[in-house]
TrEMBL record:
InterPro entries: Carboh/pur_kinase_PfkB_CS, PfkB_dom, Ribokinase-like. Keywords: Kinase, Transferase. This is Ribokinase. Transmembrane segments: none annotated. The keyword Zinc does not apply. Residues 183-286 form the Carbohydrate kinase PfkB domain. The keyword Cell cycle does not apply.
Amino acid sequence: MTAAERAGDVLVLGGAGVDTIVRVPELPLPYADSYMIDSGIRTRAGQTGDFVALGLAALGLRTHHLDFLGDDPEGDLVRALHAGHGITLTALPQPAGTKRAVNLVGPDGRRLSLYDTTRGHPGDRFPEATLRALAAASRHVHVTITQPGAHALPVLRETGVPLSTDLHDWDGENPYHEAFAHAADVVFLSAAALADPERTMRRIAERGRARTVVATAGAEGAYLLADGALTRIPAARPPAPVVDSNGAGDAFAAAFLYGRLAGEPPERCARYGAIAGAHACTVPADRADAIGRNELLRRAAAPSH
């Protein structure tokens, strides 16, 4: 069986890598010559594409992940993560090495990420034949905003497969994000850097293809723009103490897409997303864990969560 024949429900493009987690006493971190990190400094696989793929697989969706990986210990961590969770991975060789980041995590779960931008080349491209075959064998494609994904967008649009993307903390102005925002059918982003989330969301819908735009707002819930109507989605109650917000947006996107592929209306999809995001905030940064389908549906059926 070829990789394309195994693609299944969702193809995730890009965003594979490794994070080094450092728990710090506060953010921003005041200057000092040194800090003693009693909780340990840990490196684990899991960047945005990994976490979306993990969330989708935990919800029972057949998931395929395509990205560049180095022949290095970090790449081995990524490969092991996918193998351990039953996620099919097509790893293209990356001589510059596997993507890496350092995440400083504060006591309240907020994080500051430092990304190593040397782990790639401007000319990196997903092979067109591979891209077309995997997309054609999938019900949906989720495109991370890493650089090869931008060049994949025209090919993906030609396939006719529905697309989603996550713009993360876009400020609504950076032109790099616009190609992703205007090509996708479903757009996720964070409201953190937006002075007027509704205005940005409506501009995405007016200028692009998206009929659904979601702006997550942490403890304040999320904004959902679906077919021109704006709805506020309340935050879900975390099932345990909040320890780390890393991966919460990816969990939201995965659960939203699960609902969409199951034929649920947008508000129900957003409720799934809020529940999954709240769950992710209770998972320590050095673990890769996602809410399962039975637990998601149980919490969604409860009168409060």
